[in-house]
C-alpha cells in the first residue's frame, strides 16, 4: 500500500513538471500577444497542481509573476486549495494562486 501511495505522489510530481512545460510555451507565446508589454496584463496559465484526475484550472498571472515563481525549478503555481501537503509546502499565497515548493524527496521528479 505504501509503495502504491509513493508511486502516486511521484506521478503527481512528474505531472506538475509536464504542466510547467505547457505553461512555458504559453509564456513564450504571450510575449508576442497583445497586452504583453503592459506589466499589469494577466494571462491564463494551466494550474500546475498535477492532480491525477485532471484539474483543468486556470491560474491568472502576469508574465512577471509567472517568471518569478519559476526562477526556482522546484516551485509551481497552483490554484488556492490545490496544493498537496504530502509532496510540497506553500511558499507564498496570493488571491489568485499559491506558490508551492517540492519537498526534497520529490525534487528529482521535477528537475
Task: Explain the layout of strands and helices.
Elements: H1 2-30, E1 43-46, E2 58-61, H2 63-69, E3 75-78, E4 88-93, E5 98-102, H3 104-107
Antiparallel strand pairs: 1-2, 3-5, 4-5
- Number of E-state strands: 5
Are there runs of 5+ residues with pLDDT below 50, and where? none
Oligomer: single chain
**Percent in helix:** 25-40%
Strand ordering within the main sheet: 3-5-4
Helices, by number, come to 3
- The string of secondary-structure elements, in order, is HEEHEEEH
pLDDT average, as an integer? Answer: 81
From the spread of the alpha carbons, the general shape counts as globular
Total domain modules: 1
Strand content: 15-25%
Radius of gyration: 14 Å
Biggest beta sheet summary: 3 strands, antiparallel
Architecture overview:
It is a single chain. This protein has 111 residues and is an alpha+beta fold. The chain has one domain. 36% of the residues lie in helices and 21% in strands. A hairpin with a 4-residue loop joins strand 4 (88-93) and strand 5 (98-102). The longest helix is centred in the N-terminal third of the chain and has 29 residues, at 2-30. The two termini are 26 Å apart.
